[in-house]
Design brief:
2 copies of one chain form a homodimer. Chain A is α/β, with parallel strands linked by helices and 445 residues long. Chain A contains 17 helices and 10 strands. In chain A, the strands form 2 sheets. In chain A, strands 1-10-9-7-8 form a 5-stranded mixed sheet, with helices on both faces. In chain A, helix 10 crosses helix 15. The interface between A and B is large, with 131 and 131 residues.
């Protein structure tokens, strides 16, 4: 029923003694989180979110999702970073990484506004052509360049298609509760609005309207998702005992980091978890990568990538450890057929299921990699459903916060993200950046 | 017309003096490659491939591609590692990362046989349901588990659908020229066969039938692809002069590695280059990651991932350098519209093109990251077409080989890939592995 942390293949760094040595640090981190005394404590809204959320907005998310399902063949979700990764990760995890290709009774979902690629935007325009569609634009400020430019373009298209009045009923805005460009526009145009809470950062926002509206449109049970998270909150946010798996995993990550293993490789055996890995990379990388510190997050899908990155992991620089998420029951299984010729020599597998074969690849890889001096942390899930995923999301969020405090950084800010934006605005000639523009342009001569 | 290497933002490690210090090592590596005196010299077929390939097979690839385009709504490509990454990278680079979603006059292309995920295989079965389709199965030995199991399943489906005789005309086999399970089956069943050359390893095989058949089915000009590669061969494989950009980049990668920058982050600004990055990660990671050495290859798509991995790159551990591939002319462009309200404050961009905005994100990011002590190597391409991509493929292949020799490893083998397979076979009870099975299973108690 609940996820299981297995440190048996994590080596001595994760042994009893090593964990005992971290007891005080973990306890201090846990205290900071629970008492709101750590850095960034204005952003702890996610901690109680699974039980303490706006129930009437939650109901409105469901009814809007129903409306979108009934009147739209496609939903365009415009948002970048935490404003799209959570929703996309959940939809692919629960439904499919081929969600838009498979036959289904829910709308296609196109994620846009997360790039400045002109070709991607041109393609998005073509993808909605001739389809009934709605838009969910997601931005706290409403001025994020990638999202705002795409929204300008798509807003014109949807208004040209349906007229301003009907279009207004097809535009759903997720933004600040009272301020900002999108909120002002939504009030003026009478769009449905949903709230990006002040105390929940983008990368922790998947269980707010930011994630939940697109997720619900995909036909995913958001009640079960929240229940899973609530269960994990009970389990991992209540005490700092050594039996708390979140505390254990946070400690082990830091122990590996201190011992010079600076890359954490997130591993899964399901292609539908590729975007889940991307969500995790933002959560960990953006939370921990500061002050010259932090584990570098990377990810692979096995056994696929055992045939590309496998060689490096087995025998390259010893820089990493792996965190493997293994799902015990697959969404669907297939039997390996018997072949009377047996040219490929695989009849010893005939009658077994693919998932059984996959499970042996998983076990065989753990042994191969640990033999190759890459410690493995294993997290086991029952199945790839909403309830399990809710747990998993909350588990990783709390591990991330605890790890960050142990590391000695603020796990809730992201000051470095502004650097490229400032330069970009200056180079683009944004009013107010004239002086910077001149200085920066000289560096390209 | 040709790609351009720019080391201006790569810092002192890539300065004239540093490059001069590498002269002898580069020259020695170049000599090994050209004279076939280095490790793995049995696998240098890719070096002359752009001019020295089987012209009659090339013509047959084109005619089979035409047949598939005329009688199939979908092509299923079964292969793992180098047997799918090259084709998928090229198709997405030239056409789109949404190739299967966009409207087009060429078949959908589904890549399967590259995972043991039962759900993925179940989905693949559904994706071809009700569609006219063909299969291209790609495996040198014909016994690669992931590919062979999927082929067993799909072969039954296509034979049930069309009957054995018609199915045989829809199965295309790319395998060893004379040996192995697939070759034997193809001869028996009278399938069209194409050759995986003996002297070209999987990760260097994109310009053989392995890559070219699926690429041609996608409507991509394989003549232009080969011409681009041939141009790059002229340019980068002819002499070891200090003006050879392949030599320069190979030297700089090794200089960074020696100075403790152990992660090479491959960067692109086009979502359609995501699978190109995956191809590169196999090429570099599998070639260099051995003997406890090698740069760890990772990748991002900007500006998308500036909102997830951007914080880490800007301010996290200083472990990395970036190699940015920038495309000067986009496949398609879009103007930023004027908005009379200007609530988002972006009217300073109105009338400019998205690609212009993207180019300033690119420039602004280079300055931000180099200011944050992450050196940037920049490779500029004219456009995202076959000719430029042919150049790019050959350029990275030769850089990889040179880098590997400078690093002191064999860039053409992959001994570590067997480790997980051996364990997996034993755990699965493959005949002949009885003793290993017993030993391995004890490690799971």
């Amino acid at each position: 029923m609940s996820l299981k942390l297995n440190l048996k293949y994590a080596g001595d760094s994760a042994g009893k003694e090593a964990l005992a040595s971290m007891k005080d640090e973990v306890s201090a981190a846990f205290g900071k989180l629970k008492n709101g005394t750590g850095a960034g404590s204005d952003y702890l809204g996610w901690l109680d979110l699974p039980v303490n959320y706006d129930k009437s907005e939650f109901a409105r998310i469901k009814s809007c999702a129903e409306k979108i399902k009934s009147d739209s063949q496609a939903l365009v979700v415009l948002g970048i970073g935490g404003s799209y990764l959570g929703a996309r990760a959940v939809i692919e995890f629960v439904k499919s990484n081929n969600y838009n290709l498979i036959s289904k009774d829910t709308p296609d979902i196109y994620f846009g506004g997360n790039t400045l690629s002109s070709y991607s935007l041109a393609e998005l325009i073509k993808l909605v052509e001739g389809k009934d569609f709605s838009i969910n634009v997601i931005s706290k400020s409403g001025t994020t360049t990638e999202t705002a430019v795409a929204f300008r373009v798509l807003k014109k298209i949807i208004e040209d298609k349906y007229g301003k009045e009907e279009a207004a009923k097809r535009i759903y805005v997720t933004t600040d509760k009272s301020r900002g460009a999108l909120k002002a526009l939504a009030d003026k145009e009478n769009y449905q609005t949903f709230v990006v809470p002040d105390d929940v950062g983008g990368r922790y926002s998947v269980l707010t309207a930011v994630g939940l509206l697109p997720i619900a449109v995909a036909g995913i049970d958001i009640d079960a998702l929240m229940s899973g998270a609530a269960y994990a909150r009970e389990k991992y946010a209540s005490d700092d005992s050594p039996e708390n798996d979140a505390c254990k995993y946070a400690a082990v990550r830091n122990l590996f980091y201190r011992s010079g293993r600076k890359i954490e490789l997130m591993v899964s055996y399901e292609p539908s978890m590729l975007m889940w890995n991307e969500w995790l990379k933002q959560l960990y990388g953006e939370s921990e990568g500061k002050d010259g510190k932090g584990l570098f997050p990377s990810s692979v899908i096995f056994s696929t990538d055992l045939h590309s990155m496998g060689q490096y992991i087995q025998q390259g620089e010893r820089l990493m450890f792996e965190t493997v998420i293994w799902v015990n029951s697959p969404i669907e299984d297939v039997d390996v057929p018997f072949d009377s010729d047996n040219g490929d020599g695989l009849n010893f597998l005939a009658g077994k299921t693919m998932h059984y074969v996959n499970s042996k690849a998983f076990q065989g890889t753990i042994l191969a990699h640990t033999d190759g001096d890459v410690p493995n942390i294993v997290i086991e899930l029952d199945r790839q459903d909403e309830y399990n995923l809710g747990q998993l999301i909350y588990f990783f969020e709390i591990v991330c916060a605890l790890s960050g405090y142990i590391l000695g950084i603020n796990p809730f800010d992201q000051p470095g993200v502004e650097s490229y934006k400032k330069n970009m605005f200056a180079l683009l000639g944004k009013p107010g950046y004239e002086q910077e523009k001149e200085i920066l342009e000289k560096r390209f001569i």
